Amino acid sequence: MQTKNNPTQTTKEASSYVKKYLLAFVKFWYNFLVGDTPEFFVVTLVVVAIGITTHRQSQIFILSTLIFISLVFGVSLYRGRQKNT
Amino acid sequence: MTQDLLIILASFVACAVEMVEALTIVVAAGVTRGWRSAIEGVLAALCCLVVIVGGVGVPLVHLVPIDTLRVIIGGLLMILGLSWLRKAVLRASGHKAMHDEDVIYAKKVKELSANAAVDEKKSFLGSPLSTLGPRDATGFAVAFKGVFLEGLEVALIVISLGSSSHHFLNVILGAVLAAVVVFSIGAMTSKYFSRVPENKMKMTVGILLSSFGLFWIGEGTKVSWPGNDLSILWLIGVFALLTLAYVRFLKNMLVVKHNAN
Predict the structure, then answer these.
(1) How far off is chain B from A29, nearest CA to CA, in Å?
(2) Gap between the Cα atoms of B60 and B162, Å rounded
């Protein structure tokens, strides 16, 4: 007979809770970092990569321009989606 | 000195925007479901936030090397800043509806009033809700959710700005000032919420967070900034000018499109 305090069942319940919270945690960070604006996540990675690989004075202008272009791209994507709906 | 003032300003404006949103939800919950549960919800959310900030923020500053921390935090700030900036640009140029606290307040009150009517009916029929006494589960949950979610963003901004700049006191000062200003206005009357120019604040915060984000990624990856710390000023200036010009351009495009139709 299976009792309510069966250790196997308790372990299963605990692991399903951990899985659920882990998934919620991953989902939260995915929505925060990528969400509906993956272009900003990508440009941030590109900025970090350029920062690490090159060390010239001119890179500041390149980085600022890149960020502004990503903003324009993000706005255009939203407007494009609005037109389609 | 300039960086100190800018950090206080960034923290103040960013926290104020989130606090106005949280306060709108709390006032709506308090007015419709009773203040006791709303205040309890706020206090419970604040306790959770203190635990999170203490558990995550403090070890983060002591365990992770400063350059790595600057790159990670700079990246987070940049993503947050750019998404705020995108929304602000779309709203300012007329491509997206304005974020109206009055409309949100009215909508929340309507939802909660409808729930209250259902709950009263259930209580009359002898449902478990009648055993809750003067406390109200919906009011508590709504206030908790509002303060916790908006508070998480405040916590993220405080931890990010504080740990990257090593000016925790200035960041906390900005956040406390924002809390005092927002909650004083909220205590007087909720009618003032709609007078807060939220979109302009959001645009300012977007520019500040993106600039600080880029600056700290640069600091973490050893970029040589012209003018060292002062470069944050020209970064903010350049982003502000470009954003304003872009909003103007989008507005003109909309006018041309309307005239053509």
Answers:
(1) 11
(2) 11
